[in-house]
Amino acid sequence: MFPNAYRLVINSPILAERETPCTPPPAPMMAPWTTIGVLKLITTSTPDGAEIWVNSELIGKTNSTINVPYYEENINVVMRMPGYVNCKWSLKGPFKEDVRLNCLLKTP
Q: Which residues contact 60 (CB under 8 A, 6 or more apart)?
């Protein structure tokens, strides 16, 4: 196959047992997320029925009102529908009032 290449074949490999078990270390305990607040997100789109993604998590479809708990002050919102250009927002909290987002979806 390859010039000047060798193939090594071991007919009966000898495997020694380990003196100590090889168990993976326990995973470190992570602190639970602390909710900063809840954002009331009011969404509309044309056409309606676009997916709403908050921080890379699908939370619903437009036209709807959704209460979104948030754990960081910055929230990224994307509305998307196949065949259309996404609408994107970067919101900065803390949020004192409702947030209304309207997306006019356009074809590329």
A: 43, 51, 52, 66
> Do residues 102 and 44 make contact, with C-beta atoms less than 8 angstroms apart?
yes
Non-local (6+) Cβ contacts of 28 within 8 A are none
Neighbour tally for 53: CB within 10 Å: 17
| CATH code where residue 68 lies | 2.60.40.1120
86-107 pLDDT per residue, tens: 999 999 988 889 999 999 999 9
Q: Mean pLDDT across the chain, nearest whole number?
A: 86
Residue 31 lies in a domain: no
Does residue 41 contact residue 65 with C-beta atoms inside 8 Å? yes
By residue range, what is the domain housing residue 79? Answer: 37-104
pLDDT of residue 22: 67
Q: Is residue 87 part of a domain?
A: yes
